[in-house]
Amino acid sequence: MQDLPHHYRVAASAQPEGDVNLTSDRLAAIPSAAPVEFGGPGNRWSPETLLTAAVADCFILSFRAIAKASKLSWVSLQCTCEGTLERVDGTTKFTQFAINATLEAPQGTNEERAHRLLEKAEASCLVTRSLSGPTHLNAVVSVKPQGAI
What we know:
The protein has a domain at 47-143: 2-Layer Sandwich (GMP Synthetase, Chain A, domain 3). The protein contains three helices and six strands, in the order E-E-E-H-E-E-H-H-E.
């Protein structure tokens, strides 16, 4: 990791109608639009889905780093994330994020240890630590039987 602080720059541009074009140096542009819940087309990434995706992505990247540092072998990590948007005290905001994670690990893996590392990833994710809404982790560790591919 590079020394802190890190700075991330994104540009957004749009016309009166149509997509918002999101760009950042050296990255492919992302067209976005309002989600269907806000009258958008529903076929583009939206600020709401991008934020929820950032939670899921950060969780997996945090777990990858923690597992590597802890020398935990694993095969795959599947994750879904659901963000809940509500009106609270007259303000619309995300009130929680639910992360559902299934870790597949090789035979001989200590399931309790793997589960603790998943919890550590949830607690250390910089995206969720930067948000006011709580996150809830529902994790399953599946140890592959001997000889399984």
